[in-house]
Q: What sequence folds into this?
């Protein structure tokens, strides 16, 4: 029996039309407090139509890739709206990729047009000779330096100011009908192992993900909200915040390139966003800034934090010192990215809530997960049995763009490379990425749990734990610690502090006190760089020699 329901394609243009038609008065605010620009959704939608007309005039046809090398601002949002809606494919580039990787992904995706911030022109210039697919470059005048960027560019192809090209067109571009299963956008994984791999989102996956993001069990967005996406728009679609905000009529506050703690705090105090999202290092920097400056974060009702494990102490300090709820989220570029959010279940009260909130998250409707052992067998969903997390769902990638990777998929499930547990309430815990797992004496030590415990010490500002080779135990943890300003540490005390919090054989016997943990292009702790620094002797390690007797041999 067939249903009687209409069969409408789920397309990005339907989101664009809804936001413009129903929430035309909502605002997009761009910049920092020194210079803010404001436009209504209605105006931004007209600009998106003009951009589509300009791109069509430049020869963009359905399926062509239009890349962006941009921070979070109104023009980037215009590209989010226009490019998929005209049937082309938006490819968001990470300006912090190495030159080789940036050239690789642009060439691999065959980007035809590049929309680039004037400030990022030198980044493109450094790789332009390696990319032969690009035909036109449009330069966004994010900081008022578009002319120098164009004059100073070594790229001799077609180059024009974004504003001039877009303003020359009329609005009224009519969005074509597109198949909901066709490509709308793409994003490459960071390539920590091997070359980056392309994930291609469909119109359908973006729309379903947007509906999920708006739900009350997710971001619960309405037109009463003001959303500040600090997470870059090239990092897994800014976690879906731009489309979700547009669909719900939540005004958007776009921070541009000034992302240090002081600039963000000023923007929050001035523009009073209610919802924001960023990786833990950003919120940790804000907390540290707040230790020496008066900051006003009182407008925030929800802070979404993920991309790497969120230390419990970070969430507790935000709650206690600022009354702000940080909710941990889990996801990947491959999962669009929302997979799970750690809202405590209704049955949890008081202190017990922290147990739930410290997990990676509870599966959102639309995402299924299972844990498998090393032989690929599904293990019990008991919150105890550890294995690799596999996921599936309509906004989870089923392959990589032109890169056969059979080892990343298993019977229609995506192998996440994350190691952890799943319980009967649908909560995931992540003990490690499989490449970060520390194997000591035949047993696994969770670097995430160890970092969480060390972060609980009041003198510790940041910590990253990596596995280092050990003649007797195969591997042992090395804790790389950043102390809070003006504090010094007694290693014996720190180890005593840990003794009641983790298993004794987990306690690191190797410690390094460093100025800052290196970060990846999206602001996460860069454990690969730490491992390289250790291997080259660039990190001074303090070793506790008495340790082996304390470590229990494991089978
Ligand atoms: P990158 O490879 O640059 O980190 P992604 O942002 O796609 O790119 O990374 C996804 C990975 O981030 C996940 O597979 C997981 O290892 C990690 N991650 C995301 N959220 C969490 C979380 N809440 N806790 C622990 N790890 C997380």
A:
């Amino acid at each position: 029996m067939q249903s009687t329901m209409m069969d409408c394609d789920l397309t990005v243009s339907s989101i664009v039309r809804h936001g413009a038609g129903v929430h035309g008065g909502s605002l997009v605010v761009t910049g920092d407090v020194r210079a803010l620009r404001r436009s209504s959704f209605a105006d931004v939608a007209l600009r998106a139509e003009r951009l589509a007309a300009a791109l069509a005039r430049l020869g963009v046809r359905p399926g062509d890739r239009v890349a962006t090398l941009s921070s979070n601002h109104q023009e980037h949002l215009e590209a989010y709206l226009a490019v998929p809606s005209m049937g082309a494919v938006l490819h968001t580039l990470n300006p912090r990729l190495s030159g080789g990787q940036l050239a690789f992904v642009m060439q691999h995706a065959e980007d035809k047009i590049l929309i680039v911030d004037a400030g990022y022109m030198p980044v493109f210039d450094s790789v332009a000779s390696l990319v032969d697919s690009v035909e036109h470059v449009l330069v966004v005048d994010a900081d008022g330096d578009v002319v120098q960027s164009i004059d100073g560019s070594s790229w001799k192809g077609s180059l024009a100011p974004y504003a001039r090209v877009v303003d020359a067109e009329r609005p009224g571009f009519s969005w074509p009908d597109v198949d909901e299963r066709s490509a709308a956008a793409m994003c490459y994984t960071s390539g920590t192992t091997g070359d980056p791999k392309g994930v291609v989102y469909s119109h359908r996956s973006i729309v379903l993900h947007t509906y999920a993001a708006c739900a009350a069990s997710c971001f619960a967005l309405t037109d009463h909200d003001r959303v500040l996406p600090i997470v870059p728009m090239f990092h897994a679609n800014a976690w879906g915040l731009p489309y979700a905000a547009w669909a719900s009529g939540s005004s958007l506050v776009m921070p541009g390139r000034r992302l240090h703690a002081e600039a963000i705090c000023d923007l929050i105090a001035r523009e009073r966003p209610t919802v924001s999202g960023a990786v833990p290092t950003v919120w940790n920097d804000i907390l540290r800034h707040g230790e020496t400056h008066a900051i006003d974060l009182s407008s925030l009702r929800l802070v979404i934090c993920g991309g790497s494990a969120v230390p419990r102490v970070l969430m507790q300090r935000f709650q206690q010192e600022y009354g702000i709820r940080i909710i941990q989220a889990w996801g990947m570029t491959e999962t669009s990215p929302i997979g799970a959010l750690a809202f405590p279940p209704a049955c949890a009260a008081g202190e017990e809530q922290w147990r739930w909130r410290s997990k990676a998250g509870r599966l959102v409707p639309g995402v299924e997960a299972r844990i498998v052992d090393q032989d690929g067998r599904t293990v019990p969903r008991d919150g105890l049995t550890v294995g690799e997390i596999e996921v599936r769902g309509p906004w989870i990638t089923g392959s990589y763009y032109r890169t056969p990777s059979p080892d990343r998929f298993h019977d229609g499930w995506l192998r996440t490379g994350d190691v952890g547990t799943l319980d009967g309430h649908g909560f995931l815990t992540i003990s490690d990425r499989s490449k970060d797992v520390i194997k000591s004496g035949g047993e696994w030590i969770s670097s995430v749990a160890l970092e969480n415990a060390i972060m609980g010490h009041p003198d510790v500002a940041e910590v990253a734990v990596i596995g280092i080779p050990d003649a007797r135990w195969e591997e042992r943890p090395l804790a790389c610690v950043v102390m809070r300003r003006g504090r010094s540490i007694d290693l014996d005390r720190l180890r005593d502090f840990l003794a009641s919090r983790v298993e004794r054989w987990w306690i690191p016997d190797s410690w390094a006190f460093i100025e800052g943990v290196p970060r990846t292009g999206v602001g996460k702790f860069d454990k690969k760089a730490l491992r390289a620094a250790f291997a080259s002797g660039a990190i001074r390690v303090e070793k506790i020699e008495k340790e082996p007797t304390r470590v229990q041999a494991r089978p």
